[in-house]
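user: can you give me the structure for this one chain? tokens are fine.
assistant: on it. calling the predictor now.
[tool input]
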Amino acid sequence: MEEIRRVISFGSGDFFIFVSFIVFVLGCGALKFSKIPVKIRLFRFFTLLIFSFLLLSPVLLKKREISKKPVLGLILDARYSMHSKEKPGTRFTKIGVFKKWLDSNREKLEKKYDLKIFYFSAFGDEHIIEGAKHIAADDIYDVPEKLIVNYGINADKFVFFTDGNNATTKNFPHVLSQFWKKTVFVGMGDYPEVRWIRIEKIAYPSFAFMHMPVKISVHITSRGHDGERATLGIFDESGGKVSEHALELSENLISSFTVRGRAPGENIFDVCVSINGKCKDRKRIAIDIKREKTRVMYLCGRPDFEYSFLRDYLKSRESIELISFNILRDAADVINARDAEIALIPFPVNEIFLKDISLFDIFILHNFDFRRFNIGQTYIKSLETFVKEGASLLIIGGNAAFSSGGYGKSAILANMLPVVLSAKPDYRDVKVKAKPFPHPVTGFLKKAGYDEKTFEKLPRLEGVNVFVGAKKGTRIFLSFKLDGQEHILAAEKKYGKGRIIVLPGPSTWRWKIKEGILPQISGFYDKFWQAVLDYLTGEMTLERVKLFYRSDKGKHEVCLKVLDKFLNPATDKSGIKINAFTFHDGRKEKINFTFAKPGLFVTEISPWRAGKRSLTASVYESGRLIGRKKLKFKFADISGKYIPGNFAFIANLAERSGAKYVPFSKFQRGYEFQMKEKVAEIIVSKKDLLSSAAFFIIIIMLMAGEWIVARLCGYL
């Protein structure tokens, strides 16, 4: 028979305990100095004692001791890589192996422990483990807090089943250190005999300047591949190869190479380690490329006023770094000698078109005839690659440009141009009037105060190349009328990642010299060229909202690049609000983006299982929609693939937190949790003494006894 204990508990607060003490002390003091007989004082002392006792709200409890099972919490990592095979050649996934172990041991565990089963992932799946509760967490660090807050569970022992992948670089949360100290980490899929290769870490700067070399160090770990040849490559966002070199694998290997950013903003790179052309591991990184200065190569075929005025303007802008070459001798100057023999310095064609071309943002060709210097297709091909990779080309006309310069005889050059060239020389020495068309360049001029009426006041241009027409996708922003027909005066078109502008009228300097006598066009020349150059560099056409995906250091992130109304990187004080949702498996989930740095908002996603995903983000500034973007991506079915675990991370986490790490291969053979049954007390009954009849009778008896004694002593 179980023993029942009776104890008295007090329900009063600190105030009534203090009052009870004061009443008792004052009452005792009054009795001490009272002149009434001792017998009566004795009755009054007991009455005072009982009254003070009752002020404490005494409660009589009956308690019984019982044995209680220790609480054991099993927590399964149900994220993406846990859906892969436990080891090569098996049909079981890591989650499947856990289920198999749980089915075999569940009855035995439930006899010894109060068993609680959980799994954590970004989204819940009721079919993953029977009877398990879901913890909505993307990261292993977030599990304890959400477990305690959502379920109020604080077990005597927790067991994490994880392969350690999708690890983050968060600092260890010491505030929950007691939780981790009673945790056992079980490494899923820990089979040392398996051969694998993994990109462990990529070290790179968070930002770099345009065209400056950026050093990237890649830490590769492998098992079972020592001495084998592999290829480490880096690719841009479109899959184009940026750099590649061979290496010899070892257990730990650090390899470095350099890249250059070709466009301002977030430059995405994929780093891949391959054997025999098959990628073994891939990681995605993002480097914020900043433009220190716009680098311009200006190549002019002959000196003229246009070159002089435009060169002076380019030199006046602090944001531009200019290198210019001018061929001083006119082609019409007949000298019985080759150009190379009479040049002061050799024309640096290799340096301009091959060696240094990648260092520039804009290449200006002004009235330049490639035939004069025997510049072959290799150099023109290099110029084409330069534009395709994201730079810009500006071609200014003249009597040695376009059809008059034989551009149509180069298939590459003719294909690059946004216009269709004439089959015969196209330069006409005529005066033409510029007429604007809607375009970002003319839009910029209009905002600066130069509208259609300003163009009517502009002086005519003298000399122009006449094109047959525009190609598909070309945008015309200036035109002129000749012989009753409309012709192109300025047009542009995207080519690859870059842009090409043609300006067949090489006399915009006339606008500059007329500014002194026409106040209405004052400043127009500078604003026109500012608009053209800003459009070529992309500063005028930057999208205010850009959405992209990246994976880095085990994290999978969706990033929003946001510019404010001044086209500066938005800050957390720019009034930016983001409404974002993911759509997957027929479900819609709200996503929260957090401010990472100026211009960048980030949300981390967890690929907890295979399938298609889409994310839509609407960005508002001060309540006004400034952009809506949609991103689609897909996580492959990896149930038939082996992804090795990151057991170094688990072991390190266990060491730092005071937890234990056990490989599953050892754990399944029989692991003792070393938890004993606990003794707990339960309340059988509870009686409030303040309302007890016995106490009431005792008080009545004391009062009656005092009356009798006082009567006998002659006080009544």
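assistant: here you go. The longest helix spans residues 693-712. The first strand starts at residue 4 and ends at 10.
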